[in-house]
Design brief:
The protein is an alpha+beta fold. The protein is 25% helix and 36% strand. It has 2 helices and 4 strands; from the N terminus they run H-H-E-E-E-E. The chain is globular. The chain starts with 10 loop residues before the first helix and ends with a strand.
């Protein structure tokens, strides 16, 4: 597999990419044990991805959170 990353951003670098709405939603999920994993730039804006064990949550540019549960068999 070809590795495209040349630099792994720190937590603070990821946080600087988030909108104010995303930061508020991220802190709410943080209180439930979620951690910020990474931020992706999409055609619709920045998308924050948070993890908690096998659960994932995403926060769009407007601060709307969606919880996703991944089950690995």
């Amino acid at each position: 597999m070809f590795e495209r990353r040349h630099h792994t951003p720190s937590f603070n670098e990821h946080m600087s990419l988030l909108s104010d709405e995303q930061r508020i939603a991220m802190y709410d999920l943080y209180n439930f044990g979620y951690d910020l994993a990474f931020v992706r730039t999409t055609a619709q804006g920045k998308l924050a991805v948070l993890t908690q064990g096998e659960s994932f949550a995403t926060i769009d540019q407007f601060g709307d959170a969606s919880n996703l549960v991944a089950r690995f068999f």
